[in-house]
Write a structure and sequence with these properties.
Largest sheet: 2 strands, antiparallel
Strand content: under 5%
Strand order of the largest sheet: 1-2
CATH topology: Rhomboid-like fold
Distance between the termini: 28 Å
Number of helices: 9
CATH architecture: Up-down Bundle
Helix content: 55-70%
Shape: globular
Length: 165
């Protein structure tokens, strides 16, 4: 079932604007910034009970290119997911997949792991889209497409591949 396009588009635009607005407020990555000191996904801190970092890290970005990429791709993918499952559920799935991915990477890596950026949530939405049931005989195509996008966009030099996966 497809949901109205306006609500789906509004959720994608709202996500993109929220990321850019937060970046304007926090600025680029800086070691002295209280936003980054208290909000980045520091694996040790997360595993010692600072669970909120799994969410706050999604709002912080290294530079303008980082936030722009996440805002554009995330807004597009969230819009596509919202057309399939509705804007509310799509937004919740995006947040949960981002936080769960960050926590999972902290749990698995457990050493000097510090990350920032909404790409974890963006790739979470990509994974949900790839896993949605299809009426086609080629059900494996979205999964292969999702893996191809992960390889293309989620494995750059500074990317946290474990979190993206």
């Amino acid at each position: 079932m497809l949901h109205p396009t306006a609500g789906a588009l509004a959720s994608g635009v709202a996500f993109s604007l929220a990321l850019v607005t937060m970046y304007v407020r926090t600025g680029p990555e800086s070691t002295g910034s209280p936003w980054f000191v208290r909000g980045s996904a520091n694996a040790d801190a997360i595993l010692q009970g600072e669970w909120w970092r799994t969410v706050t890290a999604l709002t912080l970005h290294a530079d303008a290119g980082h936030v722009a990429g996440n805002a554009v791709l995330g807004g597009l993918l969230l819009t596509l997911l919202a057309r399939s499952v509705g804007p509310g559920l799509a937004s919740v799935l995006m947040l949960l997949s981002g936080a769960t991915g960050t926590f999972g990477a902290a749990e698995l890596i457990r050493h000097d792991f510090v990350s920032i950026g909404a790409s974890t949530a963006v790739f979470g939405v990509l994974g949900v889209l790839a896993a949605l049931p299809r009426r086609s005989r080629r059900v494996w195509m979205p999964v292969l497409g999702g893996l191809a996008l992960l390889a293309l966009l989620g494995t750059s030099k500074r990317a946290d591949v474990a979190v993206h996966l």
